[in-house]
Structure formats: C-alpha cells, structure tokens
Write a structure and sequence with these properties.
34% helix, alpha/beta, seven-stranded mixed sheet, Rossmann fold
Length: 225
C-alpha cells in the first residue's frame, strides 16, 4: 500500500482529518476540490489521505483497481461483505488513528471523512474504534448490512455524524443512506439530533459538490473550533 499523502497543519497541529477516497479513485481525487477548500479554514488540522491498494474488483470483471474491499454490484447487494478485505482496511484506519493519538492528538479532535466506499469504511472503522472520535462525514456512503451485527455487538459511544447524500445518486442511492441512518438511530443510540445530521442535495448524483463542502466546513467548525 502506498504511503498516505499528508497536508500538514499551517499552525500548531492539534486536530486531524483522515479523508478516505472511493472505489477506483486515489488519495488525490478529492484533494484539490475538497481538502484545498477546507484546509485554509482549519490551520491547526493535519489532513491524512490514505491510498487504497489495487485489488481485483468483481464489479469490473476482476480488473485491478484501487479498492478498500471488493464490490460485485452497484448499488451493492445486501449480502455483499468482503470480510477479509474490510477487516484489513479497518485496521489501516485504526492504525492511522492510533498513530495520531500516540502523537498527542485528542481522539475527540480526530475526524474521518469518506466518499462512497471510503465513507462506508469510515463508518465501519469509527463504529469499531476503541476511541471516541470527534466525528465522521459520509459523502454518499452506506453501512453494509452484514457488518451491522458486529457493530451492534460492541459498546460504542455516539460521536457526531454528518451524512451528505444526493437525491439522484444511482450508485449508492439515497435509500441506502436513509437505511443506514435508521440503523444508527434505532440500534446504535443516535437518537439526539446533535449527534446525527443528514443533508440531502437536490439533483446531486454520485459525487461531491461545493454546497456539500461548505456545509461540511460549518459542521467541522462546530467540533474543531
């Protein structure tokens, strides 16, 4: 696996954002659009952008692409769960978190942000982390149904989640996001509005737009200011 790209804090480093890309992308995919827009507003934040390894992807007829875990269909089927690769990728994120905590960063000032498959990984890693993190941003994400029992079996204190989803997304439909939100509310104690927010973006497909980035900036300010 390639080393993460790191955007250092402009001032004293006291918070960290880990940005996890989606299937077939790289750690540079969203750097110029998202990280470059947000980093100047948070001069004390270090941005870590990990790179997924190349794996055979069933959805692409076995072609090797950057992928955190295998996917056979888009939208993913409920019974799809590439457990070995998911476990490995969760460990990668947990290691990044542990490295930051060891360096003296308060876990409550560590944020995971992910797009699509990276959002799913961010959510799974945070729900299985031994630390109470500051929060998670899900851009067009989902929580694999077969993972949920594992998450439900652990005692996890609610942290803040901001869920962004377009209403015309046909790869990870809005219904997948709403289903995950229902799981978090009913099974994972995310019953308070301040812990779980969802914003739906009219006419937005499977991508990230400027309105989402602005909203995430406001949300990050509420945690990291």
């Amino acid at each position: 696996m390639l080393a993460p790209d790191v955007v250092s804090a402009a001032q004293e480093h006291d918070a960290t954002v880990v940005f996890i890309h989606g299937l077939g992308q790289s750690n540079l995919t969203w750097k110029s659009d998202v990280v470059a827009a947000l980093a100047p507003k948070f001069p004390n934040v270090e941005w870590i952008l990990p790179n997924a390894p190349k794996r055979p992807v069933s959805y692409n007829d076995g072609m090797e692409r950057p992928s955190w875990f295998d996917i056979a269909h888009l939208p993913p089927y409920d019974d799809e769960y590439n457990k070995a690769a998911i476990t490995e990728s969760i460990s990668v994120v947990h290691h990044l978190i542990e490295t930051q905590v060891t360096a003296g960063i308060d876990p409550r000032r560590i944020i995971l942000i992910g797009f699509s498959q990276g959002a799913a990984l961010s959510l799974m890693a945070s729900l299985t982390s031994s630390y109470a993190l500051g929060g998670v941003v899900s851009f067009s994400g989902w929580i694999p149904p077969r993972f949920r029992q594992e998450a439900f079996s652990r005692e996890t204190s609610p942290y803040k989640i901001f869920w962004c989803h377009g209403d015309t997304d046909d790869e990870i439909p809005l219904s997948y996001g709403r289903d995950a939100i229902a799981f978090l509310k009913t099974r994972m104690n995310y019953s308070e509005p301040e812990t779980l927010q969802m914003s739906v973006y009219e006419g937005l497909s499977h991508t990230i737009n400027g309105e989402e980035v602005a909203d995430v900036g406001t949300w990050l300010s509420s945690i990291l200011s």
